[in-house]
Amino acid sequence: MPESKATTSLNLICLADVEEEAISWLWQPYIPIGKITILEGDPDSGKSFLSLKLAAHITTGKKIPFDRDCTASKLPRNVLMLVGEDGAADTIKPRFRKVGGEMSRLTLLDGLVTRKEGENDVYSGITLDNIPALEEALRKLRPALVVIDPFQCFLGAKVDMYRANETRPILSELARLAERYDCALLLIRHLKKQDSKTIYRGIGAIDILAAARSVLLAGRNPEPASVTDLIRIDASGAVLEPKDRFAIVQTKCNLGKKGPSLEYSIDDSGLTIDGISEITADELLNSTMKTVDQDVDEWLQELLSSGPVEANAVKAAAAAKGYGRCKLDGAVTRLGVLRKPSGFGGAWTYALPSNEEAAVAGQDVIPAPEGGVAPVLACA
Fold first, then answer.
1. Please, is 260 exposed, middle or buried when counting C-beta atoms within 10 Å of its C-beta (0-12, 13-18, 19+)?
2. In the list 40, 67, 149, 301, which could disulfide-bond 188, CB 3.0-4.6 Å?
3. Residues 210 and 89 grouped into a single domain
4. pLDDT, tens only, 8-48
5. How many angstroms separate the CA atoms of 258 and 252, rounded?
């Protein structure tokens, strides 16, 4: 029989025929159902732990703190996670246990298995362009929440996350799946190192930001800790370590008014969402940058505390610590470091202002590393 020819026609939608629908929320107004939400922040800002805290509430049916949804109760639902950086046995399960999650309702999609009779199973990773595999997982589990942590790990080697024409088709398909299976999709991503406007700090093409209906920024809380945070004593009278304090700020919400910033803390017992905060996104980002600056300043001050050090030695030591040329120059400026030759015709040195006389006299100068040539440092 001859093959039938496919025909293509316009898919026209008259707005009069569209039935209005109310927005459904997993965590109002932070995470909508059937849409893409981004949770972003620097490393060590508690993003992954926070996603497990949310998963714990969903898998047990407990209402997430500061949820504006007035529904009296929620049924326990499944959660699906694609995790590229944390181990299931040593990190995910212990953390999930600490926050009180229901283990039987959290499933990790750990890749694909190819089986052939008489041969060993072949395991392979999964990428987000494998829509049939993702859809099969959603059809089997019917999760309320899907977490992809971090998003960039699952794009695949052939996708450049800075190219909108390569990321947009994947995001469109993910959004379609979220809507079809009535689940919330949470993409976790890191921030760019360089300074930029707050809303554009997430890595990747701006299309990733555009595809999300809600964006949440996580970071360390720069506000002073309370006495109860700093001095904590358990029932036996033992002094506990202070809590690590964080905050989350909603930087984008296309579906309504943004929610208030929230504080959360992490200690040995798990993660707790503590309350509402007045912190802004800029303050949260600036605190992270300030912490990095303080680290560089303290390191350089200690390096130069014993006297002048050859410039090449300083640059080599900075490179070994992972500090780029821009960070080093910033610390030099903030500390008022003097850059002078160690005597007539001598090598250039770095010295703290208090060591100016030694720098001029060329005394106690620490030499450059063997070869005398400092590495080329890129801005970082």
1. middle
2. 149
3. yes
4. 999 999 999 999 989 999 999 999 999 999 999 988 889 99
5. 7
